[in-house]
Amino acid sequence: ICNKNGSLVLTVLSIDEAAGEITCRIENNATIGERKNMNLPGVVVDLPTLTEKDISDIVDFGIKNDVDFIAASFVRKGSDVGHIRKILADNGGQHIKIICKIENLEGLENYNSILRLTDAIMVARGDLGMEIPPEKVFLAQKMMIREANVVGKFVITATQMLESMITNPRPTRAECSDVANAVYDGTDCVMLSGETANGPYFEEAVKVMANTCIEAESSINFDSLYQSVRNSSKARYQMSNSDSLASSAVKTAIDIGAKLILILSESGNTARQVSKFRPSIPIAVLTPSEAVARQTNGILKGCYSFVVDSLEDTDAIVQEVNTEIVSHGIAKEGDLFVCICGTSHGMGANNQVKVERVLSNYWEETGESDMAAHQKGREAHHEHLEPHAGEAVKGCSLM
């Protein structure tokens, strides 16, 4: 029995089912604290995916408070995802996205069926490292991230990324390498846990994590990465119309040296598909849905999102964004940006890729727009632009 991510190891000596007791030998000394995890390597634990309390928490708290994501622990097979989705749908939470945490051997073996049904994956390396040999965790991480990248599902890499910063103000070099390698693998998000929940150096940990990610991304060849993702997608399945549209938009942006990809989206699916092809430039998502904005902004790689009143007047929206590109220093007059929009409205309506030229004189003629106080722009780092969160203002909220 492994406790606290393997810090304490127990060997079972005997089991008394009648008394409900297990006698164990403690194999090493460790301080474990309270409410720590426990793993049984090699044992198939046949427990329900959701307990009654889990269901109550989802229905009475999660859906009632309009949460954006449900993170499901110890998902073992695809049907587990279907069970969670049915509970959400039956209680008015069908818009809530599901993040499946892969934490055991059974979940790893059924990864493809889980990936097909989930909205996102969390590579939960702490518990997973108790179920499989630690020297194989990096292989599992690379496989899970690679497969999720191919189908355009976002991935979170978590656990023990900067573990030493729970007690130390600086990380080890190995920890920084671990974070950077997760970025190289293709992860969309990296997550801190004990470093920010327990330690006194939480602010320093966040800064180190962010700086390491920026440094790693600055050395990626995004043109080659685009081609790699496209080739992998074509080799695995017949690309859909929307996939092809997203790929074409990114390829066009690369070819013409565009400074921005603008997406008008009801559901956020187009943003997910464009992000999948890993453009090196910012992806601006305009949507009338606050939930979609929250579920894409800062979650999908390279995306930041605005809530707009309507997507009906495409030309007016493009003109307004035109002003922001200049005022925030993302581009200058004469630069190009790529716009994905539709000739009709509603989910799945995007069917156009347009190239627009930045015209700063439009701003001079019309004055400051409703969006002018938003996104402060992206700071160039080694010629790569990173998104930053903005603030909500009248008419258009950046979530």
From TrEMBL:
GO terms for molecular function: ATP binding; kinase activity; magnesium ion binding; potassium ion binding; pyruvate kinase activity. InterPro entries: Pyr_Knase (IPR001697), Pyrv/PenolPyrv_kinase-like_dom (IPR015813), Pyrv_kinase-like_dom_sf (IPR040442), Pyrv_Knase-like_insert_dom_sf (IPR011037), Pyrv_Knase_AS (IPR018209), Pyrv_Knase_brl (IPR015793), Pyrv_Knase_C (IPR015795), Pyrv_Knase_C_sf (IPR036918). It catalyses: pyruvate + ATP = phosphoenolpyruvate + ADP + H(+). SUPFAM superfamilies: Phosphoenolpyruvate/pyruvate domain, PK beta-barrel domain-like, PK C-terminal domain-like. The keyword Phosphoprotein does not apply. Pathway: Carbohydrate degradation; glycolysis; pyruvate from D-glyceraldehyde 3-phosphate: step 5/5. Keywords: ATP-binding, Glycolysis, Kinase, Magnesium, Metal-binding, Nucleotide-binding, Pyruvate, Transferase. Its EC number is 2.7.1.40. It is an enzyme of class 2 (transferase). Residues 369-388 are annotated as: Disordered. Its cofactor is K(+). Pfam families: PK (PF00224), PK_C (PF02887). Residues 243-355 form the Pyruvate kinase C-terminal domain. This is Pyruvate kinase. It comes from Chaetoceros debilis.
